[in-house]
Design goal:
Layout: H1 6-15, E1 22-24, E2 27-29, E3 36-40, E4 47-52, H2 56-72, H3 80-96, H4 98-109, H5 113-134, E5 141-142, E6 149-157, E7 160-164, H6 170-183, E8 187-191, H7 198-209, E9 217-219, H8 224-233, E10 239-243, H9 246-258, E11 263-267, E12 273-276, H10 283-295, E13 307-311, H11 312-327, H12 347-363, E14 365-368, E15 372-375, E16 378-382, E17 385-388, H13 395-398, E18 405-411, H14 414-422, E19 426-427, E20 429-433, H15 437-446, E21 451-454, E22 469-470, E23 487-495
Parallel strand pairs: 7-8, 7-10, 8-9, 10-11, 12-13, 12-20, 13-18, 17-18, 20-21
Antiparallel strand pairs: 1-2, 3-4, 5-6, 6-23, 14-17, 15-16, 19-22
The structure holds nicotinamide-adenine-dinucleotide and manganese (II) ion.
Nicotinamide-adenine-dinucleotide binds near residues 191, 243, 268 and 402.
């Protein structure tokens, strides 16, 4: 697959069968209303397929299917080793269908198919495998009571878990939620983003093929204000894992208060700082990674390193390196292995990014990119863009743009760098570049974020929790810690004759 040409990918894309129906109780079904919406390829503007437009009635059916499955124990009370076997099989099926999964995300939201084939789709298989392997290795507690009392403290599944996910990593965001929630024994109702529902639907089909019982994983494509809201307000959803914007994360907290006090786990926006100190010896690697940190996935990454703080003595030399890298990362057809960046997810997001860029042209110093372009005369593409000498209070330095736009801000002291980095409503991630160990530890200690990457960007693994502080939300995906979102502590106290 990694030696496929542009034409190879195009041929395979044309041969794909796209399924846009909802997946409820183990079957593909139309929305109750019969309504559909179009799934669009942002690289061409072409309609990929019609997708079921789910609403309250469909969410009700999906939650009821999940509840029936949970209550009769077909998954929730299956032996841990058997659940493990099903999810391991699912990981294998994702690997066996890697090319298709990669194409679905690339066509639906514009990411490079080579990234989808090397990062997103293998990542999904890996995370299912990782949680599958964990299932029969987690032990519960016996509390230290006296003789005559046996107090068991167990983590038990909650019931029906809702998941509402964004479009930037469609398959992986669905996986981060579903793999952990299913491993813990729950039923899941997933509402993928309306821009990119296709891979989640195929994932649910593969899960049933792997042996997941009907009704345990349901996918209800549709819009946020209807299907997403219905899931948030549902009286029979026990926990809701959300990844998306901070504004919608706040709405989910309200939905909970207005309905059944379901647990809400928001993982929301970011404006992550990247701090480059003059005592970083390998500035070429730092520049390579700073470019990856903002331009990977067209900058549509919640933890994108969108604020670059550079020590003033090296700032001009460092920015020159970055400009060269940006110029070498021009967007192209996402199906072309030679392209360095793909398409922006849709017209609305593209226009939003361009509004920030146009405002930046009069308030900061544009040094690379800055234009919307087409590829083959079509599509939503934005050049990798760098603004230098951005003032700390410029919206370029404060607001999440969620596109390939980097703001460079010079600093004179460690104190000033840390203060500016922390002066944000967000706290998802940060990077620090220095070869001074004490400085690395000192700065990492003081950064108020969920993940600090030292001498790298966006460090992430199945083994480590991912999530934010402040208005980046408080949910954690990945690692065994994410199982806490999908389980409750349950005490069973037994009296016996000592
Ligand atoms: P979004 O908040 O617009 O949408 C996310 C999901 O919420 C979608 O499924 C959408 O349909 C749904 N939704 C929208 N309005 C809703 C409503 N009124 N009620 C219920 N559901 C609703 O975000 P987006 O544009 O899809 O994604 C980009 C955002 O996601 C960025 O802010 C990014 O930082 C964030 N993100 C965060 C993480 C993380 O782990 N912290 C990861 C990826 C993306
Ligand atoms: Mn789309």
């Amino acid at each position: 697959m990694l030696d496929y040409t542009h034409q190879d990918w195009k041929t395979r894309a044309e041969a794909l069968t796209l399924r846009g129906q909802a997946f409820i109780d183990g079957k593909f079904v139309d929305a109750v209303s019969g309504n559909t919406f179009d799934s669009i390829n942002p690289a061409t503007g072409a309609v990929l397929t019609a997708v079921a437009e789910c609403d309250t009635a469909d969410v009700d059916l999906a939650v009821a299917a999940g509840r029936r499955a949970f209550d009769d124990g077909r998954w929730s009370r299956m032996a841990p080793g058997d659940r493990k076997a099903v999810l391991l099989k699912l990981a294998d099926l994702i690997r066996a269908n890697l090319e298709e999964m990669a194409l679905l995300d690339s066509l639906d939201m514009g990411k490079l198919v080579t990234d989808a084939a090397t990062v997103d789709a293998p990542g999904s298989a890996h995370f299912f495998q990782w949680y599958a392997e964990a299932i029969d290795k987690i032990y519960d507690e016996v509390a230290p009571t006296g003789p005559g009392d046996l107090a068991l403290v167990a983590r038990v599944p909650l019931g029906v878990v809702g998941a509402v996910t964004p479009w930037n990593f469609p398959l992986d965001m669905a996986t981060w939620k579903a793999a952990a929630a299913l491993a813990a024994g729950n039923s899941v109702v997933l509402k993928p983003a309306e821009q990119s529902p296709l891979s989640a639907l195929r994932l649910a089909e593969l899960a049933v093929e792997a042996g997941l019982p009907d009704g345990v994983l349901n996918v209800v494509p549709g819009f946020g204000a209807t299907a997403g809201r219905a899931l948030g307000l549902h009286m029979d959803v026990d926990s809701l894992a959300f990844t998306g914007s901070t504004g919608i994360g706040k709405m989910f907290m309200q939905y909970s208060g207005q309905s059944n006090l379901k647990q809400i786990w928001p993982e929301t926006g970011g404006k992550s700082p990247n701090l480059v100190f003059a005592d970083c010896e390998d500035l070429d690697t730092a520049a390579d990674m700073a470019a990856v940190g903002i331009f990977f996935n067209q900058g549509e990454v919640c933890s994108a390193n969108s604020r670059l703080y550079v020590e003033r003595s090296i700032k001009d030399a460092f920015v020159a390196k970055l400009i060269a890298r940006a110029q070498a990362m021009q967007p192209g057809d996402p199906l072309d292995p030679a392209a360095k960046m793909g398409a922006i997810v849709d017209e609305k997001q593209t226009q939003g990014i361009m509004r920030f860029i146009e405002a930046g042209k009069t308030s900061a110093n544009l040094v690379a990119g800055g234009e919307r372009i087409t590829v083959g005369g079509k599509g939503c593409f934005v050049q990798p863009t760098i603004f230098d000498d951005v003032s700390h209070d410029n919206p370029l330095a404060r607001d999440e743009i969620f596109g390939p736009v980097l703001s460079v801000i010079p600093f004179d002291s460690e104190e000033e760098a840390v203060t500016m980095a922390n002066d944000s409503i967000y706290g998802l991630a940060a990077s620090v570049w220095t070869d001074n160990l004490s400085r690395a530890c000192r700065v990492a200690d003081r950064l108020h974020v969920g993940t600090v990457s030292v001498n790298t960007v966006d460090a992430l693994s199945a083994q480590t929790p991912f999530g934010g502080m402040k208005q980046s939300g408080f949910g954690r995906d990945l690692s065994l810690h994410s199982l806490e979102k999908y389980t409750a502590l349950k005490t069973t106290w037994i009296k016996y004759k000592a």
